[in-house]
Specification:
Strand order of the largest sheet: 1-2-3-6-5-4
Strand content: 25-35%
Number of strands: 6
Number of helices: 1
Shape: globular
Length: 132
């Protein structure tokens, strides 16, 4: 009767060894590639540009091009229509910091405050160059 017990014990040992071997990672396998890290682009704010030297209206009421002190140009996309409210006082460009430390750039036309969605460096201003 010892013989069947030996067979059962041997079969159990072989099964356990097979499971353990399957669970162990292959030693020569290439390491798994890490997922590419997401890069976040830090938004540009008027505060970062060192001051606005001049501006030109874009082809939409939600776009203005600004020229900064080093003569480079930036396209400024606004959340709301702003350029139709420009008067003889022109525009003001500000950056505000809220309690959480986040920065928001804004364009002020007359009594209207327009939030900046994005600023992008460009080679030159776009069409409709109504200099102010």
């Amino acid at each position: 009767m010892r013989h069947p017990r030996l067979l059962i014990a041997t079969a159990a040992a072989l099964t356990f060894a097979g499971v353990a071997a399957a669970a162990e990672p292959a030693r020569n396998a290439a390491p798994a590639k890490a997922a590419p890290a997401k890069t976040t682009v830090k938004p540009i704010h008027f505060r970062d540009l060192g001051g606005v030297k001049g501006w030109r209206a874009g082809d939409k009421d939600t776009i203005v091009y600004v020229q900064v002190q080093d003569n480079s140009w930036y396209r400024v996309d606004l959340y709301e229509t702003c350029m139709k409210f420009v008067n003889d006082k022109g525009l003001r460009f500000i950056t505000e910091e809220i309690e959480t430390g986040e920065l928001y750039s804004k364009v002020i036309a007359d009594k209207y405050i327009c939030t900046v969605i994005e600023m992008t460096k460009v080679d030159a201003p776009g069409p409709r160059q109504a200099a102010k």
